[in-house]
Amino acid sequence: MKYAVFGDIHANLEAFQAVLEDAENAGCTEHVCVGDIVGYAADPNECLRIVRELECPVVKGNHDEEAILDTSLEGLNPLARQAMEWTRFRLEPEEKEYLGNLKLVRQVKDFTIVHATLDTPGGWTYVTNKFDAMASFSYQFTQLCFYGHTHTPRIYVKGDSVEPSDDLSVRLEMGRKYFINVGSAGQPRDGDWRASYAIYDVENQEVTVRRIEYDIQKAQDKIVEAGLPEMLAHRLSLGK
Ligand code: ZN
């Protein structure tokens, strides 16, 4: 059995479709979403519809949470704020209810999923180094946990100490724990514009991050046509 684990879709339909197609071709039959389905790009409703039709385990991201509130957006940077105002206006009450009911942490079979970090899942802090990862590992009770939020794929391994792996493919070993960022499907920020997600191959006990090309031009055109900030289209090509 193979799981496709994706997140930070951020309403980028073209990227999301490319990920699902690649996952299907690679033999994935199960899907898991680590949150941030909406925010930034032009297709929040369509991306939500697909995730709901997959009937897969999903955890809530900070943008999913922000999208259902009507609180002030002053704390956000201007780009995120404009995108969030746009997104809030477009989501149907039923879609907001779905997002509102998502949990912050879930266990799926023998692994865990969370959007940001296990130590403060609703605090939306970022795991960007091994010390952040160590804090999360102290709340990780399964061997394997997938997360997102930083939009940068990374594998942290906990043996005697916690270290990031040089590689984005890992074979799970007994006695070790793994905290794996699957990267962002819809808005990567590691300098590579291609959509990112991970495949968990249960039989072979292997996790591999994959990068997938998609119709970025179409996604960018839609952002501009929707009246969203042009920078949100531009940054997709930069992978930032
Ligand atoms: Zn995100």
Write the layout of secondary structure elements.
Blueprint: E1 2-6, H1 13-25, E2 30-33, H2 44-54, H3 62-68, H4 78-90, H5 93-100, E3 105-108, E4 111-114, H6 130-137, E5 144-147, E6 154-158, E7 162-164, E8 169-171, E9 177-181, E10 195-201, E11 206-212, H7 216-225, H8 230-238
Bound molecules: zinc ion.
List key phrases describing it.
240 residues; alpha/beta; Purple Acid Phosphatase, chain A, domain 2; six-stranded mixed beta sheet; five-stranded mixed beta sheet; 8 helices; 33% helix; 21% strand; binds zinc ion
Q: Which shape, going by the Cα principal axes?
A: globular
Ions and ligands: zinc ion
Poorly predicted runs are: none
Mean pLDDT: 96
CATH topology: Purple Acid Phosphatase, chain A, domain 2
Q: How many beta strands in the DSSP annotation?
A: 11
Would you list the SSEs in sequence order as H and E?
Answer: EHEHHHHEEHEEEEEEEHH
Write a structural description.
This protein is α/β, with parallel strands linked by helices and 240 residues long. 33% of the residues lie in helices and 21% in strands. The strands form 2 sheets. Strands 3-4-5-9-6-7 form a 6-stranded mixed beta sheet, covered by helices on one side. It has a 5-stranded mixed beta sheet with strand order 2-1-10-11-8. Helix 3 packs across helix 4, helix 3 crosses helix 5 and helix 7 packs antiparallel against helix 8. Bound molecules: zinc ion. The site of zinc ion (ZN) has 7 residues, from loops.
